[in-house]
Specification:
Blueprint: E1 8-11, E2 14-17, H1 44-48, H2 50-57, E3 87-95, H3 101-119, E4 126-133, E5 143-151, H4 154-162, H5 177-187, E6 196-204, H6 227-236, E7 240-245, H7 253-274, E8 278-280, H8 284-294, E9 301-303, H9 309-317, E10 333-337, H10 353-366, E11 371-373, H11 376-388, H12 393-404, E12 408-414, E13 421-427, E14 432-439, H13 446-452, H14 458-465, H15 472-480, H16 487-503, H17 513-530, H18 535-554, H19 558-577, H20 585-599, H21 603-615, H22 621-635, H23 648-661, H24 666-675, E15 677-678, E16 683-684, E17 688-690, H25 694-701
Parallel strand pairs: 3-4, 3-6, 6-7, 7-8, 10-11, 10-12
Antiparallel strand pairs: 1-2, 4-5, 9-17, 12-13, 13-14, 15-16
Length: about 700
């Protein structure tokens, strides 16, 4: 093997050094699943095998990194894999030099999984061919076709990969990706059938030689094919070139950074010129997101019929919230409850009294049947956007209401001494003040005062007296019942609610979720220290322990997850025993269903209870949404339920209900990702629901339920 210790390639005034040890190019796709774990600050793991992680995640409907993590990329790799009825040919082009040793090993391990993922839901075959390139000084030559036909046989592909052994990339850092691409385009037996999709994936960390480069010392080191020629050839054959810019080893970091602009330019030209995509792993944030996605476990899936926009429209028309045409004032109302602070001072810190007042109001309002309350997370996110747009302070609240698409805004102020609390209700886009009330004492009483106030706004005035399925005295009791008996416990419970309301707007993998839930846990435990029969505090703790167990299991901390599941069962059991102390009738029903499902493990009874929650107009929208979510999982075969329970039609119906009626919720966002919802076609392009809670359900069965 040629040793090229310090050979220089000087190009356009820049000296690029090179003990060349490899880069990689490939052609691939995949699906895996679940929400992503929080990304840590340590970049070591992200640098180990990012290309292999990409193979496991970027084509996964459940684990693919969000678009926002992909730099300037506005499309996902999933977007190019939506023609599932077509046959697919993939050219895998691999740099076989030393620095890619880890990546090559990763490809060998994951390529079978890639093919499995691509086959899911695809009628046409998936065939893969293999090409390796190096540089002119490599012992085995600059390039080789390792598998000269497109095959779907994993064993055949594995045999070809086993022949691939890393070699020296002499003489320079620059290599021959242009040769590898040309060999794949010209020497592989691409189909002429228009019903066949044709892809070439290029994974590499070094650019080709400049088109005008010449070396007297190494005359053979030169550009083989111009970029424009490769683009033209691929376009003529209707082949999309997708590029992944990888990293080099630490010893080549300095020279890699000098050349990365050239590499990026070459790959971008190939991808953009052929309608393909580029993934730039030279950016740490993108690299970390891809590696985190690649660490996700694999799941089984249930195939359902595609969901269309017409399905969502029909579901809205059949919603239990749809009012009779003769009573338009009885339709669902969307409300935003803001922290009771001046707009410039608005905070979302759960320890701030003004935030706790808003949390208490939100809790009371969102547990009434006709009220849909915007999550604090959405309010905070949209407020940041309003401020970033430079909107004048006096116009910010109106702009915020417009972005939130709400019917009413509840906003006010809290006296620093703790009383009185003043709340104002605005209609439309904060153009019309319809109610202003003040209250001294427990802020949970504000909801009753607000809904009972006199107003000419017919729709808002109907909210208290026209709650379907609830007697007026039941509404009054629910609104007026205090969250806790003592003042200190009430404040702690409001703080717990404030933290959890912000957390539930986030996906479980969001790094902001854990500290918020920890705050809620501390506050809820403080309530129970003085009021051990507070059912709402127990219910909050059950949710916190469940989320913690799910997160710990995803990171391999099985014993800790088991301990959290034991705590979850104890808290849920106590919430069930003390459910009569919970102020919300809807939450009481949810606790009963959760107990049957997670503690009694009586699946038929749990299904019965959850179905009742989804069809009862007296149940609040938030509880109905969560019931639809659990039923989607149960009917999909998740949670290790018996095969006789699985029903693709019912799973689809409950998924449609969420997408149709709660389109901005975290559940709808996750379903949209899993199902590959395409706003251009107005339908789901990857209609598969993952079974992601099997391990958690199995672990829960081992937990001692005694308290």
């Amino acid at each position: 093997m040629l040793n090229c210790s310090r050979i220089l390639y000087q190009h356009v005034g820049n000296v690029v050094c090179s003990r060349r040890i490899g880069a990689m190019l490939i052609a691939i796709l995949v699906p895996s699943l679940s929400v992503l774990p929080a990304i840590g600050q340590d970049d070591t793991a992200a640098r180990s095998a990012p290309a292999a992680a990409a193979l496991k995640s970027i084509f996964s409907t459940s684990a693919a990194p969000p678009r926002k993590t992909m730099g300037l990329l506005q499309r996902s790799f999933l977007d190019v894999a939506q023609r599932a009825e077509q046959k697919l040919e993939i050219a895998v082009v691999i740099d076989g030099t030393d620095s890619m040793e880890t990546e090559i090993a990763g490809v060998k391990e994951t390529i079978g999984l890639m093919i499995d993922d691509l086959r899911r839901g695809r009628v046409g075959e998936v065939g893969v061919a293999l090409v390796v390139y190096r540089d002119v000084g490599s012992p085995s030559g600059p390039g080789e076709v390792l598998l000269d036909r497109f095959t779907s046989d994993v064993a055949t592909l594995q045999q070809a990969l086993d022949r691939l052994q890393p070699e020296s990339g002499a003489p320079f850092f620059h290599e021959l990706p242009d040769l590898g691409v040309q060999m794949a385009l010209e020497q592989l037996p691409w189909s002429d059938d228009e019903a066949t999709s044709r892809w070439l994936f290029l994974f590499g960390d070094a650019p080709p030689y400049a088109e005008n480069f010449r070396s007297d010392e190494v005359p053979s080191a030169r550009r083989a094919y111009a970029t424009d020629l490769l683009v033209s050839l691929a376009t003529r054959k209707r082949i999309q070139i997708h590029s992944v810019l990888c990293t080099s080893g630490d010893e080549l970091d300095a020279v890699y950074r000098q050349a990365v602009g050239e590499t990026r330019g070459f790959m971008n030209a190939l991808s953009s010129g052929t309608g393909g995509l580029m993934l730039d792993l030279s950016y740490p944030d993108i690299r970390q997101a891809v590696v985190a996605a690649g660490q996700q476990p694999r799941y089984e899936y249930l195939e359902i019929e595609p969901i269309t926009r017409q399905d969502l429209i029909a579901a809205r028309d059949q919603s239990v919230d749809k009012p009779a045409e003769s009573d338009p004032a009885a339709e669902e109302v969307r409300v935003a409850v803001l922290p009771h602070l001046p707009i410039r001072q608005i905070s979302f810190d759960s320890g701030v009294p003004a935030v706790q007042v808003a949390a208490s109001l939100q809790h009371k309002l969102e547990n009434l049947p006709r009220l849909s309350v915007v999550s604090p997370y959405d309010i905070e996110r949209q407020l940041r956007r309003v401020r970033a747009e430079g909107i004048r302070e006096e116009q910010q609240m109106r702009a915020l209401a417009a972005k939130l698409r709400v019917d009413y805004v509840v906003w006010g102020e809290v006296d620093p001494s703790g009383s009185p609390i003043v709340s104002t209700v605005y209609a439309g886009r904060v153009d019309d003040q319809i109610i202003q009330v003040s209250h001294v004492g427990d802020p949970s009483q504000l909801a009753h005062a607000i809904l009972g106030a006199q107003t000419d706004d017919v729709r808002f005035a109907s909210l208290q007296r026209s709650q379907p399925g609830m007697r007026p005295e039941a509404i009054t009791d629910q609104l007026q019942r205090e969250l806790a008996d003592g003042a200190a416990a009430s404040r702690d419970l409001q703080a717990a609610l404030a933290a959890m309301q912000q957390a539930v707007g986030l996906l479980a993998d969001d790094p902001r979720s854990t500290p918020l839930q920890q705050k809620a846990k501390i506050a809820a435990e403080a309530v129970l220290a003085t009021e051990p029969r507070n059912g709402l505090a127990h219910w909050l703790l059950a949710n916190i322990h469940f989320n913690s167990a799910n997160r710990l299991l995803a990171t391999g901390e099985r014993d800790a997850a088991q301990a959290e599941l034991a705590s979850m069962k104890r808290s849920l059991g106590r919430a069930y025993v003390n459910r009569g102390q919970i102020d919300s009738l809807s939450l009481r029903g949810e606790v009963v269903a959760d107990h049957a499902f997670l503690i009694d493990r009586d699946i038929p009874k749990a299904i019965e209870f959850y179905e009742q929650l989804t069809t009862n107009p007296a149940v609040s929208p938030s509880v109905r949404r969560r019931a639809h979510w659990v039923l989607t999982g149960i009917y999909s075969g998740d949670w290790n339920v018996d095969a006789g329970v699985v029903d693709a039609t019912k799973a689809r119906q409950h998924a449609i209900a969420i997408l149709a009626n709660w389109e901005s919720s975290p559940e709808a966002q996750l379903l949209g990702k899993w199902l590959g919802w395409d706003p251009e076609t107005d339908r789901s392009e990857h209609p598969f629901l993952p079974r992601s809670h099997g391990d958690l359900a199995a672990l829960a069965m081992t937990v001692d339920t005694s308290s």
